[in-house]
Amino acid sequence: MIPIQEGQITLKFRDETGAFKYDEDPFYQKSVRKLPETKGVDIVVPGAPNGYYLVELKDFRGHRIENKARITNGALAEEVAQKFRDTIAALWGAWRTDNIIGNDTLFSNRSLRVEGILLLAEDVDRPESGKRVRGIRINLKTKLENLSKFLGIRVNIVTEEEFRQRYAHLLI
């Protein structure tokens, strides 16, 4: 079991997934973070049987109002797309310099599905209607997909509960 905690969210990944906190990886620490303004996702899951996952966690519970504009104006989509881009660039650099992070399947297997996931934890008791919340989430996903399209990755936005259901094969 690989427990990974980011803020108030703890996910327990199966050992075979090879999941790790990206910013704690030695290659990231020694090389990537030296470049100012470089961003990275929270979790990389390189060993899943059906894909390669980049997971960004955003816990906005208790911070709905101060993050509302970021969600609706595209700033959050830009930030997450930059994290996907910079993480893939760093994984490429690690692969090219034989500093394999996780494993080398991301670049050696073109048919591998690569998925960028934004796990967005928000307050359950939001004043907006469910229909409005879904609309905001669809708009956010569309923006994130458009910004990340050139990377050739699938993009998904999920709640913590949805992540645990949809990606149960990765978790204990």
Automatic annotation (TrEMBL):
Domain of life, source organism: Bacteria
Protein name: NERD domain-containing protein
Species classification: Bacteria, Pseudomonadati, Spirochaetota, Spirochaetia, Leptospirales
